[in-house]
Design goal:
Layout lengths: L1 E7 L2 E8 L5 E5 L5 E7 L5 E6 L2 E5 L5 E7 L4 E6 L5 E9 L10 H8 L1 H4 L5 E8 L2 H12 L4 H48 L7 H8 L3 H12 L3 H18 L5 H7 L5 H12 L7
Antiparallel strand pairs: 1-2, 2-9, 3-8, 4-7, 4-9, 5-6, 5-8, 7-10
Length: about 280
């Protein structure tokens, strides 16, 4: 079992590496509350997190990134065996040191790992995902470097910054994807609401309220999704429906106009001609 601890800029880097011919259990505790990010390298060790009579298990840790808050009541058990060696790099900082972290790390922790900065239990888990190739290579370099003295510390400092940059960059990308997916769901709901009652559509304010957003966001995101403003989209859909009613269902022009919410035949005919290039009477 090889274990090395390096203190850099109010953070501690913990490097753990172990291989064995027989099964062993290596336990680790933190003597004060910390926020940590664990990067699991080439090994595929088993992990158990134990606290308050609870146990969380991870069976396939190779390439895994695990962020967490833990106090001194939490035990981390690595179950090492011949086919599951341990290679784990942990970057940790004490809760009391968050305001002192350089390079914006404290702000990024607050932004992306808010639940860890404001924990509600002895153990709180943050995002868990697989490392990208750049992160995996950086972790490998931590375990393979042969530098000594000041050069070694320079290496650790630069690689820690690079690794954290990739980590927070990944979180930012995932957060953006989640936001985009959420917004898309709302805009699609707005579309459904408009099409469900084209005769009496809600106002912009009402529509924004129905989908849980504000009018500015609704207008911006709707146009980005459909290429036209909200009520231009609604007008186009009204006129397409009216065209179908006249051509395929043999409705009169008056009936088609009323069916899609037009009270004025003149307004309807003008809008129809502007869109299709001919009057509804020519259908």
């Amino acid at each position: 079992m090889n274990r090395e601890m390096i203190d850099i800029n109010d953070c501690t880097i913990l490097l753990e590496e172990a291989s064995t011919d027989k099964a062993i259990v290596d336990s680790c505790f933190f003597d004060e509350p910390v926020i940590a990010i664990a990067f699991y390298g080439a090994g595929d060790v088993g992990l158990k997190v134990k606290y308050k009579g609870k146990t969380k298990e991870f069976h396939h840790t190779k390439g895994m990134v695990l962020s967490f808050y833990a106090d001194d009541q939490v035990a981390f058990e690595h179950h090492v065996s011949a086919d599951k060696p341990l290679q784990c790099l942990v970057i940790a900082t004490a809760i009391r040191q968050l305001d002192r972290l350089p390079n914006g790390e404290g702000e990024f922790l607050e932004q992306f790992l808010h639940q860890l900065v404001h924990p509600k239990d002895h153990y709180v888990e943050g995002p868990v995902f697989k490392m990208n190739p750049e992160m995996f290579l950086l972790v490998e370099q931590f375990f393979s470097n042969t530098y000594e003295g000041g050069i070694k510390m320079m290496f650790y400092k630069s690689h820690m910054s690079a690794l954290l940059s990739h980590y927070f960059g990944q979180l930012a990308k995932e957060q953006s994807t989640e936001i985009n997916a959420s917004q898309l769901k709302k805009i699609n709901l707005a579309q459904d609401i408009l099409l469900s009652d084209m005769e009496n559509p809600p106002s912009l304010t009402e529509l924004a309220h129905k989908i849980g957003t504000n009018t500015n966001t609704l207008k911006k995101e709707f146009k980005a999704q459909f290429g036209v403003p909200v009520f231009k989209y609604l007008q186009n859909e009204r006129l397409k429906k009216a065209y179908n009613l006249i051509k395929n269902e043999k409705k009169t022009i008056q009936e088609a106009a009323w069916a899609v919410g037009y009270d004025s035949l003149g307004s309807f005919s003008n809008a129809f001609e502007k869109k299709f290039g001919f009057r509804p009477s020519q259908v």
